[in-house]
Amino acid sequence: MSLVQYTIDDFKQHLFDGFDYTLSPTTNELLDKLLGQLNIVDNDQHKKVLKPQPSQAQWNRSKPFKTTIIDKKEGLEKTMNDIRYCLNNISENNFQLQVTKIMEYWEMIPVTSYEQVVQFIVNNAVINKINSSLYAELLQLAMNIYPDVIAHVTRLPSEYCDSIQTITCISSTEDFELFCSVNKTNDERKGMVLFLVHLCKLGKVEEDIIANIIHSLMELIRSWIICPGKTNEVDELTENLFLFISMLTSLSSRWSSTIHEFSCYKPKQFCSLSSRAVFKFMDMNTILGKNS
Length: 292
Prior knowledge:
The chain is mostly helical. It is 63% helix and 0% strand. It is built from 15 helices and no strands. Helix 4 (75-88) runs antiparallel to helix 5. The model is unreliable at 45-51 (pLDDT under 50).
């Protein structure tokens, strides 16, 4: 048996010769009917519309050159921005340099702008907790040089007390954006605790004021642990209280008996008391015991 060999021409002949690719009129009518029922547009029936090509004159015509306008801040607005820049760049290494610059800028602003600058300092302090003590030192210096600043600092404790009354907590599954916003607010509140403590240590917030804040926290915790659905809020209050107690042990010793009482509670005794909060009270009790 001899081997049969095929050439390319043989393949072409077998594939294409005698085969008609043209559809019959009946088939075309059936396809058109189906297209109509399926609401499909036959693209072959629509010719592509070409956009008119631009003329040579249009190509040659250049667009008018527009000068970039740089918004330069001047006067008070520039000075305030310079202060904010220095505040954002404060660190342990450059503290004295930045404070010198800020004090120079402070001489250039009117008394009516003091409140805004104080708010700049507070905002940085509550966000940048690591440098909270540095911002407190800066504010102490400003209060010593510019007495009008004092009125804007004395409001901070009362603002903090108002904020703890409205503590809210929400699950991320309920509303994620609100969850992030609430967490940010709660975190900044704890940053305010650190700032108030540093101001107290510098003698710019009276110890009695801090004692009243601690008392308010204790009473609010006592009232919220028996309210259904307040577990997360109680945890948040306890975190705030822990910061005050751990940083001001000499002042906090007057609350040792109450803290010891809370540390002995069982979570099952109260509907909104968690193990987390009880453990925090145990930690506070230990801290006060070591410093007694």
